[in-house]
Write a structure and sequence with these properties.
TIM Barrel; nine-stranded parallel sheet; 10 helices; 9 strands; globular
C-alpha cells in the first residue's frame, strides 16, 4: 500500500506548499495531493486558497518522482473539454505522474455550497451532480482518444472518482479507474465492493482499478503493524492519503517519512 500526503490549501501559501512537496519527495512519500476549493469557509480575511491545478502544475516542475493529483476536482468548476486538455498538459509537464481525481463537488448540505454560488454555479441535487461526473469522464476519455486534434496524454492518467456512498462508488467502477473515500468510513468494505463489482461488469474489467482513502496524519497510519493500517490492507486499499494542515512543517514531513511502512 502506497502512502501519500495531501496539502490542505486553506490559508496556505504556495512557497510553503512547494517546500512541503520537496520534503515529501525526499522523505519517500509516494504521492502528493491537494484539494480543489476556491475559498476557505472558515477563513474570512485570511490569505485565501491557492488554486489546485496551478499549484499541481508548478509542483510538477520542481519534483521528479512523486505522483501528483487533485482530491478531487469539482466537475462544475471546469468544462470537461477544458479539463481534458489541462490534464493532458499536466501529464506532459510531470512526465506521466498525474492521478486525476474528480468528483461531484459539495452538496447543498456542505459549507462548500457557498463557494459554488459565489462564482455563479448552481448547486444541483445529488443525483444531477453525480450524473455530471459520469458524463464528464466519458467526454474526457473521448477527447483523450485523439479525436478532433485534442492533446492526448501519454500515458493516459487513471481517473479516480471521489465519493461517500454507493452511487459514486458505482460511477467510479463503471466510468473511472479508481475510487476514493474516507479511510474511517463505516461502510468502507461495502463501498469498495460496489466499485469493484461495477468495474467487473464493464469492458475495462481486466484493467487496473485503484482504491484510495484519506485520513488525518498520525503515527497509526504510518506504521505497518497498526490495526488501522492492516484493516485498510484487508479491504484492498492501494493508496493511503494523509492530510497535512498549513503551515507545513518540513521537519514533521521528514520524520513521518522515517516511519513509512515498507512498500
Amino acid at each position: 500500500m502506497k502512502t501519500d500526503l495531501l496539502l490542505i490549501p486553506m490559508s496556505a501559501r504556495y512557497a510553503d506548499m512547494r517546500a512541503a512537496a520537496l520534503a515529501a519527495e525526499e522523505a519517500g512519500f509516494d504521492g502528493l495531493w491537494t484539494w480543489d476549493h476556491l475559498r476557505d469557509p472558515d477563513g474570512d480575511g485570511g490569505p485565501g486558497v491557492p488554486e489546485a491545478w496551478t499549484v499541481l502544475t508548478a509542483l510538477a516542475e520542481v519534483t521528479r518522482r512523486i505522483t501528483l493529483g487533485p482530491l478531487v476536482l469539482n466537475v462544475a468548476n471546469r468544462h470537461p473539454g477544458v479539463l481534458a486538455n489541462m490534464a493532458a498538459t499536466l501529464q506532459a509537464v510531470s512526465g506521466g505522474r498525474l492521478l486525476l481525481g474528480i468528483g461531484a463537488g459539495g452538496s447543498r448540505r456542505t459549507p462548500y455550497a457557498a463557494e459554488q454560488r459565489a462564482i455563479g454555479q448552481p448547486v444541483e441535487p445529488d443525483e444531477v451532480r453525480a450524473r455530471r461526473v459520469a458524463d464528464a469522464i466519458d467526454l474526457v476519455r473521448q477527447l483523450w482518444s485523439g479525436a478532433h486534434g485534442f492533446l492526448r496524454p501519454e500515458p493516459v492518467p487513471p481517473i479516480v472518482v471521489g465519493g461517500f456512498g454507493p452511487r459514486m462508488a458505482a460511477i467510479a467502477g463503471r466510468h473511472g479507474d479508481g475510487f476514493n473515500t474516507q479511510a474511517m468510513h463505516p461502510r468502507l468494505g461495502d463501498l469498495v465492493q460496489v466499485a469493484r463489482e461495477a468495474r467487473a461488469a464493464t469492458e475495462r474489467a481486466s484493467s487496473p482499478f485503484v482504491v484510495t482513502v484519506f485520513a488525518g496524519m498520525s503515527e497509526a497510519w504510518l506504521r505497518p503493524d497498526t490495526r488501522a493500517r492492516q484493516s485498510l490492507e484487508r479491504v484492498g486499499v492501494d493508496r493511503l492519503i494523509l492530510l497535512l494542515e498549513p503551515p507545513f512543517d518540513t521537519g514533521q514531513i521528514r520524520q513521518a517519512g522515517r516511519q513509512l511502512a515498507p512498500r
